[in-house]
């Protein structure tokens, strides 16, 4: 399946990209927010200055020029074509324990970027392992538990930025 993206730069320049365009990009991550990119024989230094995952918008500085970039995927485009308003993504800011249990595994760290349905942790309750997944895209702000810790129902486990 070939994923398609629409990219809007500074509210004017619109480009269509496919997943292979992104994968073929020669980019090296040089720090948490900076990249070195080679494209058509030219070198670019890129820095992500600001981002809003729920709105898929980014402020990027490339070779000392700043660009505001909005990205829409195939689903966003379909919703727009059907005439529906693209609503905000789920605004879940925290994950709490759905039942008392024992934390068997924590699959994320503070600062990790997660996608919807990524596994966050495993909670053992009533001799069953329950995988708790991310309800939305986001960045892990805090982790309030440790591996091997017993938790109560509704106890805070993970917070998102």
From TrEMBL:
Residues 83-161 form the Lipoyl-binding domain. Keywords: Biotin. Gene3D superfamilies: 2.40.50.100. It comes from the Bacteria. It holds the Pfam family Biotin_lipoyl. InterPro entries: Biotin_BS (IPR001882), Biotin_Carboxyl_Carrier/Decarb (IPR050709), Biotin_lipoyl (IPR000089), Single_hybrid_motif (IPR011053). SUPFAM superfamilies: Single hybrid motif (SSF51230). This is Biotin carboxyl carrier protein. It comes from Gelidibacter sediminis.
């Amino acid at each position: 399946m070939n994923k398609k993206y629409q990219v809007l730069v500074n509210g004017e320049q619109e480009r269509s990209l496919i997943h292979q365009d992104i994968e073929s990009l020669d980019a090296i991550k040089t720090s948490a927010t900076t990249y070195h990119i080679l494209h058509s024989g030219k070198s670019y230094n890129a820095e992500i200055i600001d981002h809003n995952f729920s709105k898929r918008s980014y402020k990027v500085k490339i070779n000392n020029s700043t660009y505001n970039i909005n990205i829409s995927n195939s689903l966003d485009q379909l919703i727009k074509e059907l005439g529906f308003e693209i609503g905000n993504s789920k605004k879940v800011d925290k994950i709490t324990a759905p039942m008392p249990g024992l934390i068997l595994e924590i699959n994320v760290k503070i600062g990790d970027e997660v996608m919807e349905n990524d596994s966050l942790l495993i909670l053992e309750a009533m001799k069953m392992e329950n995988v708790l997944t991310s309800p939305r895209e986001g960045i892990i702000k805090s982790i309030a538990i440790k591996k091997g810790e017993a938790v109560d129902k509704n106890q805070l486990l993970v917070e998102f930025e």
